[in-house]
Amino acid sequence: MTDRVSLGQDFRRIAGALAVPVAVLLFWELLSVSGIFRPQVLSSPVAVAVRWFAYLAPTEAYNPKTYSWISWALSGELLSDTLASLGRVVVGCLIGGGLALPLGLLMGGSRRINRAFNPPLQFLRPIPPIAYIPLAILWFGLGNPPALFLIAIGAFFPVLINTIVGVRNVDSIYLRAALNLGADRLTVFRRIMVPAAMPYILAGARIGIGTGFICVIVAEMIAVNSGLGYRILEAREYLWSDKVIAGMFTIGLLGLGIDLCMNRLSAWLLRWHRGQEN
Questions:
Q1: Where are the domains of the chain?
Q2: Which of 171, 187, 247, 262 could make a disulfide contact with 183, Cβ separation 3.0–4.6 Å?
Q3: What top-level class would CATH report for the domain 74-276?
């Protein structure tokens, strides 16, 4: 009886989660079939699914004598573009986050360092990473370097600001207790301030990765000849709206997967935190 109740609850939960997406797809298909929009403007979901599968598969026809099903499914254009974009996001976010994390810890823990670095950083922070595109191309040319530069800028400030806020929001009771027990300032910083700021740091990392995805797509449309952004721009030139939407769909799936991984990582790293208790 308990298993039936649990199964029914799971079914209702899944049905509730799929209700809105299914309704959107049905409405989208209705608009396409009715002829309100031309296929060049808005392709039907079926056309997008067919294009996405063709985007996944290789350009040459499948030959069972020379290709296995696995190699056929994994040797297409989509995989190489996805890996190219994902690699740029990971490297760029590591660069930006790697620079922002120690600086944020120092600025949050020292008023003197904060007074020295805060004015120029607050001056640069409102400038969107996209505004750096001309300079990035002038400095680094075309290819991966300007894309990594833009992604690093996009990831830098979310990690920096969240790290500073996290360090400053450490409860002073913990700090005074550690100092009274004889801990030196380095130990307090390493054993109390950094772990207490970790929820903010991980939140900043999630925001930074999301910003990095925006930056990589823009960079690939301008300075790179590979990746999902480049492929979307190429499809636009030929009025392939189905391939444009297929690329957007892939970006959404990729971002969702990374966010889920970051959420699991945060839950594991912060399992000691009272906000993670079930």
A1: 1-36, 74-276
A2: 187
A3: mainly alpha
